[in-house]
Design a protein that fits this description.
InterPro entries: UCP022079. This protein is mainly alpha-helical and 193 residues long. The protein has eight helices and no strands. It has one domain.
């Protein structure tokens, strides 16, 4: 049974997370802050994973899947009004991570998994494009190709993820890791965890 429109993800759900973030004390070194970051990220990637899964199962067609992904993207990538700089940085990190997850889902629906290369090869190429050439378009394209392989069932080896220097590719890999977990076990993240 497919999810009716607006059931994959709602403005209310995103806003509940953002409200919780506004209320929390954020400490970049604390496990609670890290958990909140990953819960927010995972909650959105679970919605993306459900769209992809419903598409794969024939519950929705490619157009409906693209429309749902666009609707979810509009919700979670919209500008967030938060006064505290650390919290804005946290939201920006989540949104940056989600960009790659959205592109991955869209690419997978349109073209399926990458024809060539492995997850590791694409991620190493992405890291090189970011650090050596400062070519973010190529870096993102490689991350998306890696992502389509993850959607297809390939593993994201944490050894290669740990090699990547902090930057956009590292954020995008967070999104791919979250998407991979969501596809493997699409449990809803409870907001009171």
């Amino acid at each position: 049974m497919s999810s009716p429109p607006d059931e994959y993800y709602t403005d209310e759900r995103w806003n509940n997370w953002v409200d919780r973030l506004r209320e929390e004390e954020i400490d970049p070194e604390s496990d609670d802050s890290a958990r909140l970051f990953f819960n927010l990220l995972d909650d959105a990637t679970i919605a993306i994973a459900k769209v992809v899964t419903d598409y794969e199962d024939g519950e929705i067609d490619a157009d409906a899947a693209a429309e749902e992904l666009g609707r979810i993207r509009e919700i979670v990538l919209s500008e967030v009004e938060i006064d505290e700089e650390e919290k804005l940085t946290l939201v920006d990190g989540i949104q940056t991570s989600l960009v790659c997850a959205f592109y991955t889902a869209e690419e997978y629906i349109v073209g399926g998994p990458a024809d060539e290369g492995t997850v590791e090869e694409h991620l190493r190429a992405a890291a090189a494009a970011e650090t050596d050439e400062e070519d973010l378009d190529t870096a993102l394209a490689h991350c998306v190709q890696a992502g389509t392989l993850i959607v297809e069932g390939a593993e994201l080896g944490m050894d290669v993820a740990e090699e990547i220097e902090y930057g956009l590719v590292a954020d995008w890999v967070n999104g791919l890791d979250s998407l991979g977990r969501a596809l493997a076990d699409p449990e809803v993240v409870e907001e009171d965890e």
